Each structure stands twice: as structure tokens, then as C-alpha cells.
Amino acid sequence: MSLRPTVRPATPQLRRRILAWYQTNARNLPWRKTKNPYRILISEVMLQQTQVTRVLEKYHRFIRRFTSFEVLARASAAEVIRAWSGMGYNNRSVRLRELARIVRDRFNGRLPSRVDELLLLPGIGRYTAHAVACFAFGQRVPLADTNIARVLARLFPGEGPDPWSIADRILPRRHVYEWNQALMELGATICTAARPKCTSCPVVRMCPSAFSIAARKATLHKKERGRNGIPNRIYRGRIIELLRKSNSRGRGLMDIGRGVKPNFSAADHKWLVTLLAGLERDGLIQSRNRGNSVVLRLAS
User: Fold this and answer.
1) Residues 44, 57, 159, 224: which is the catalytic one?
2) What stretch(es) of the chain map to CATH 1.10.10.10?
3) 272: Cβ–Cβ under 8 A, 6 or more apart, which residues?
4) Is 44 noted as a catalytic residue in this protein?
């Protein structure tokens, strides 16, 4: 007999089962033990496109060094970029410092609690604004990150492509913090993209998609611009890492080229200049003339 239901799951029962499962299966994550808006925001920005395991390695170290918006705002860009080492997507560190300065200067060092105000801050999109509003300020708002969107698409197939409308419809009146965390936890650990663990799912008997998701095959991604088969974003990361390890005097263009691409040649010169110009526009590095040459270093 099939375990797959033929009707949409009943929302109250669905919530009870998922919340009960979360109570005994939630991972012990440090940002779940605080309501401090600064620490929650740091965790949310770190978790953007980065695995939890990597964030766990950096989270405590970062907040020990930059203990508040005021401390982060006073830090130089180079200090923050260096502290971000190993996290990837270095633009986030620059935007985070800019956000801290705005919070200090416009909001007296206190993060705004309203979603519309949070959305005006650099690096804050719809999900992050809702997550901070819920997790730091206890507001009753829905969430729909990648994990939640996947869970809802499988529980409520055929209800349209917008997971936010489903998340809003099934949002409970109480225990909203736990509910949003539970949905994320379910998507991250059980209802995964490639190999969902339906036999371990607390709502398997309520899910129309149970046991119907085949193991995902590798997808062909759009070819990224790069050099010798390596995407430019990887080279950008290498440049930042090289400059992190440099002293304040910086490095010359050819030195950087040889440092990030072992077979660097004159044919790569224009390509490297374009990468460096992009990093400078993003506020990650700065250049200055020294005689007839250009020296680059982390932004100050």
C-alpha cells in the first residue's frame, strides 16, 4: 500500500508533527541560542551561499573580534576582509561593514526591527530581512529560503511557484520562531535536494511527493567566464587571499598575476586588469601608482 497521500496535508497536524520533530532533532547551532540582533545578523549574512559547517568555523572568531555594530563600523575594510578569510563571496564582508556604519550613524547603533527598514540596508534581501525580524525581534513573518522552498514545493505541489505565499498561508499564530527554524532544519537535514530521507521524515505520510524524488543528477551549469577552465570568481578569491597575506605595501600587478595563475603571461594582462578593476569597484581592493607601476592592496 502506498504511503503517499492524495490530498493536501492538513496544516494544524503538519505543524504539530514538524514542531515535535524539531524539538528533538534540532542541531545545536550558536545563533539559535541568542536573540542579540547583531549576532543573528552576522550569522544570517555568513550563511548566505555558505555551508553551516564552514560558518561554524568562523562565527565565534568573527564576533569575538568585532563585538558590535560600533566595533565593526570602526574597523578598516582590510581588517574585515582579512577576518572573512575562508568564507568566500568577499563582497559580503564589505557590505557588512557598510551596513554597520549605517546602523551606527542613522540608527544610533541599534539594528532596525521593521522589515521595510532592514531591506534598505546593504546586503539585506527579502529572506535575510524576514529572518532577522523573526529570529531577533520575534515578529510573526514567514520565511522561504532555498530549504524551506523545497519543503513547501514537495508538501504542496501544484500551488504555484511562489513559496512565500505558501509560507505565509501556513504560518502559525504562535511559536513562529520555532516553526521557521523547523522548516529550515527539515530541508537542510531530511528533505534534501539530491537524496531526500523520506523514511526519516516526520510528515512522510502527509507528503504527496514522498518517495517520488529521484536522486538528482549533476546539472549542467551555465559556463562562467574565466581562464584555463577556472571561473573568474575563483581567481577573484585567489587575489583577495593573496592580498590578505601581503603587508600594507601591497603587490604589483605582475606579482599578483603570477601568484594567482602559475602560467601567467603577457596574454593574461588585460584579463587580470579587468578582474582587478572589478574588485576595486566592489570596494575590496585599492590601487595606487608607485613610479611607473601600479600597486594593489586590500581596501582601507
Assistant:
1) 44
2) 226-298
3) 253, 256, 257, 261, 264
4) yes
What topology does CATH give the domain 226-298? Arc Repressor Mutant, subunit A (1.10.10)
The answer to whether 99 touches 121, Cβ cutoff 8 Å, is yes
Q: Which residue has the cell 529560503?
A: 145
Say which residue the cell 505541489 belongs to: 157
Dihedral sign, Cα of residue 226, residue 231, residue 233, residue 234: negative
pLDDT band at 1 (very low <50, low <70, confident <90, very high): very low
d(C-alpha 99, C-alpha 222), whole Å = 32
pLDDT band of residue 227 (cuts 50, 70, 90) is confident
Instruction: Report the CATH fold assignment for 11-206.
Output: Endonuclease III; domain 1 (1.10.340)
Pairing between strand 251-252 and 293-298?
Answer: antiparallel
Percentage, residues of the chain above pLDDT 90: 80
CATH 1.10.340.30 spans which residues of the chain? 11-206
Q: How far apart are CA 243 and CA 85, in angstroms?
A: 11
Q: Are residues 90 and 280 in contact, defined by beta-carbon separation less than 8 angstroms?
A: no
CA 138 to chain centre: 21
Closest CA to 201 of 1, 4, 53: 4
- What is the C-alpha separation between 173 and 246, in angstroms, rounded? 53
Distances (CA, A) of 86 to 53, 56, 165, 265: 12, 12, 36, 28
119 has pLDDT over 90: yes
